[in-house]
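Pilot study result, target chain (331 residues):
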Amino acid sequence: MSGKLPPDSSPASAASDRDRLGRHIPVMAGEIVGSVRPSSGGRYVDATLGEGGMAELLLEASAPGGQLLALDWDDAALELSRQRLARFGSRVQLVRDSFANLRAVLAEAGWSEGADGIIVDLGVSTLQLGRDDRGFSFQADAPLDMRMDRRLERSAAELLAELDEVELANMIFRFGEEHGSRRIARQIVRRRSESPVRTTAQLRDAVRAAGVRSRPGIDPATRTFQALRIAVNRELEQIELLLDRGWELLRPGGRLAILSYHSLEDRIVKQTFATWAASCLCPPRHPVCNCGWTAKVRLVTRRKQKPTEHELEHNPRARSAGLRVVERLAA
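Predicted structure:
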């Protein structure tokens, strides 16, 4: 696989060792860290810090002089990672912000010319899924919050209470690709007068009452929970903001690696990377190019890279993950 480190020294091996000690395993760690080629003296960004596993691997791989800028908009994740990364001292800067604001964060840090490597993991962190009070998972009954940044205006429960039936159905269909969205929205609205949907268990019950089916082994509520989480956190909008002239966030030769988990995320990343890598944006039948566009990046992964079978055996969370990487060309 492109950029993968040797088995005896790969970050994936280090991550596996830490997992035996009770640490979280970053998804596709070896492939991701290897793809950005960390080295001493480089500047790197972990735009989705989470529990700090990927950041730790980056700092170790870029020792002794590599610098890391790490972002997360979850205060709990930042506090956990601050302790985990304390041993790296001034080599790491932690910032509470969304990756959508990465351009401004880079400027504030004095990195206006860009970074040598940027990693973005679009998945929900294990920290958030494991906290019952956050409402991201239906594995335990909890208040429907789902805000990755608790400073955000509306919780999931508030969103369900405010949207009308058509708006609910559209949201669940658009962000969850759920074909039973109308029946689910009807159930949620019907329950408002007697027992409003305010907890994860109540939402799961509403989906089941709607008679929605899913593939074997997949809970019928999965797509609805995904849709609600995306809507609450405006996740697709955040990705689009990050990718707006996103190649400018890199130094020439720098690489951007994005790990996505569902088709909505991956479609945005795939199409954007393809546009950046194109040498012309004129319509196909246009006889002469006059768009003035030139390729901004090279596609390091021409197809979405998937986890190995070995990783899937040891890390089921990686099942739906896919990696895409680009490298900025010289001006």
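One observation from the pilot: The chain has two domains: 11-127+236-328, 132-234. A full batch analysis is planned for the follow-on phase.
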